[in-house]
């Protein structure tokens, strides 16, 4: 028994003796990979082991520090749990707490006091997970969605791969410490990107205080207070859309936050911090990104490669006005650039091989333009036919596929053709006239020579 207690307490003693301030200083001195990009705004030094700022619209990475290192996510795991819940269940579904859901959570772990047999709606469960960081609620949701916790964990890993995660493996629904439960700052940003693309999840993830009222299936009345200081307002910041905290002894402080301002929607992830630096460093990173980058609409600013084919073929029915080209760029497509640069500083590559996912989302797109700045992907734009609307092509309802002609240019062409014909006619007439005149002169000269010859012959008779 003494030996067992010693093994259990040894790691705790080691953690207690750890100089976290010194470790934080060492982490601050780690290289920031985005600072090595030519002409890229210099990012701040922070005490996180890993950190990323990603543009939610384009996936552009504005700040990167060890973003692919595999680390423990702690309760930020629950972002994936809630994402799968709304993708695979209805808000009105009843979530009932099993013995396994409640008692598989270690005593003292984060919970909201649900008992076996009690039930709440899925919508309430989402608030319990995101606001109260409730481990037992995450387990109960998993059982409801997939039938068992293990099956739901498999679904988590499948979804992570679908989102492009390559350094992630989940082994539980809530982020409890486990050697085989890890992710990276980049992968978690991809998961958060999908999470904050959902309006309901943004609302849930940005709730500072939630009230549970007593029901027949859940007898307690209580409030949940969000520990995310940028959401609660303890550290005010403009444009916060939501986020999730996380902590274990080995993971240290982890934080995911989304904010929108000045036309940019950004996701910030910091791993392995010491409180309250996870919040202050997030503010520092947001300030860096919002102050140094902006979104640039491609169709309004880039004319380097689109052909000017509107001089003759037109795509609108108002034939007396110049109405645009047959090809067009997506009106809402944008890229992210440093504020000190413009779109002419970028490089681009046009590809006609769209992925199956791109084809399903934009079936009328015929090409894709990928943009880079100093070798960094900064977004893309899609090329479409302008003559027919996307909805018309999708519905196959367009029967009249006539190409409309610009009448002004057609008239000018006709007038030009008449002028050419007239000039050609004049030239031909003149040529024929000259030829006729020449033939008459030749006959006159021939007859004159003939008379002179006869006269000469008469005068020389013998």
Structure description:
It is a single chain. By secondary structure, this protein is α+β, with helices and mostly antiparallel strands. Helices cover 39% and strands 21% of the residues. Helix 3 runs parallel beside helix 8 and helix 5 runs antiparallel to helix 6.
Keywords:
single chain, 462 residues, alpha+beta, 5-stranded antiparallel β-sheet, 15 helices, 39% helix
In short:
By secondary structure, this protein is of the alpha+beta class.
Strand order, main sheet: write it out. Answer: 2-1-9-8-7
Determine the structural class based on helices, strands and strand pairing.
Answer: alpha+beta
Major β-sheet annotation: 5 strands, antiparallel
Any idea what the shape is?
elongated
The counted number of beta strands is 17
Straight-line N-to-C gap:
167 Å
Instruction: Give the helix tally.
Output: 15
Low-confidence stretches are: 1-13, 309-324, 396-405
Taking Cα atoms only, what radius of gyration do you get, to the nearest Å?
37 Å
> What portion of residues is helical?
25-40%
Taken as a percent bin, the fraction of beta residues is 15-25%
**pLDDT averaged over residues:** 85
